[in-house]
Amino acid sequence: MIKIAPSILAADPINLERDVRRAVEAGCDWIHVDVMDAHFVPNLAYAPDTVRRLRKTFSVPLDVHLMMDHPETLLDAFLDAGASLVTVHAEIGDVSGLLRKIHEAGAAAGVALKPGTPAENAKPYLEDAELLLAMTVEPGFGGQKLDERVIRKIRELRDLGYKGEIEADGGIREDNLPELAENGLSVAVMGTALFRLEDMKTAIERLHRI
Ligand code: DX5
Ligand code: ZN
């Protein structure tokens, strides 16, 4: 079964608790929290306090995606706040030290690759990362179109022998998820395609059957 992680970037920022509760009651597996530093990506989103409040209010695993040039500056704060999984981008350099820190705090660690970054760049982390995140859009905004080149990269990551979770993020909809799943995806981040739905519960039931 593909795990579904709604991305709160597509939720109503004025009614975040209401929208996260809707997703949790609809049967989502994780909640995806995008953290943007206005440097690594041209956008700004979500502070450690948002994760802390979500942690206090919900028991669902919090999947924190750090789109930051210097995640080390806030890593402890996100871990203290209760992140279940913290993902950093491979493009910022050697992240093995960050993965160690995440594990020392008892959380799971992920490594993300932008669409243009080859699968090869995940090789140093295949043993240490519980999750590899293959970005299916250029990071920074929701509502973009899925980059189909990445479907092949997901296959390549599995062909490297990776047995952990492979997550894709950006432009995922019900009609393009089956092909991603066939190529080895195990977790789907979905923002716009889920939060615009009236009946999120029936949709997630269908997605879990893919
Ligand atoms: C983009 C973010 C994604 C985004 C997904 O940089 O990492 O999580 O919110 O949103 P959709 O599903 O609308 O593309
Ligand atoms: Zn994300």
Describe this structure in words.
- This protein has 210 residues and is an alpha/beta fold.
- The chain is 31% helix and 21% strand.
- The chain has eight helices and nine strands.
- A nine-stranded mixed sheet has the order 1-9-8-7-6-5-4-2-3.
- The chain binds D-xylitol-5-phosphate (DX5) and zinc ion.
Summarize the model shown.
The chain has helices spanning 16-25, 48-57, 75-81, 96-104, 149-159, 177-182, 192-195, 200-208, and strands spanning 3-6, 31-37, 44-45, 62-67, 85-89, 108-113, 131-135, 165-169, 187-190.
SSE-based structural type: alpha/beta
Quaternary structure state of the chains depicted = single chain
The fraction of residues in strands falls at 15-25%
Strand order of the largest sheet: 1-9-8-7-6-5-4-2-3
Could you give the count of β-strands?
A: 9
Question: What summary fits the major beta sheet?
Answer: 9 strands, mixed
Percent range of helical residues: 25-40%
Q: Give every kind of bound small molecule, once each.
A: D-xylitol-5-phosphate, zinc ion
Can you tell me the overall shape?
globular
SSE arrangement, N to C = EHEEHEHEHEEHEHEHH
DSSP summary: helix tally: 8
Determine Rg (CA atoms, Å).
Answer: 16 Å
* Terminal residue distance: 7 Å
Low-confidence stretches: none
Mean pLDDT: 98
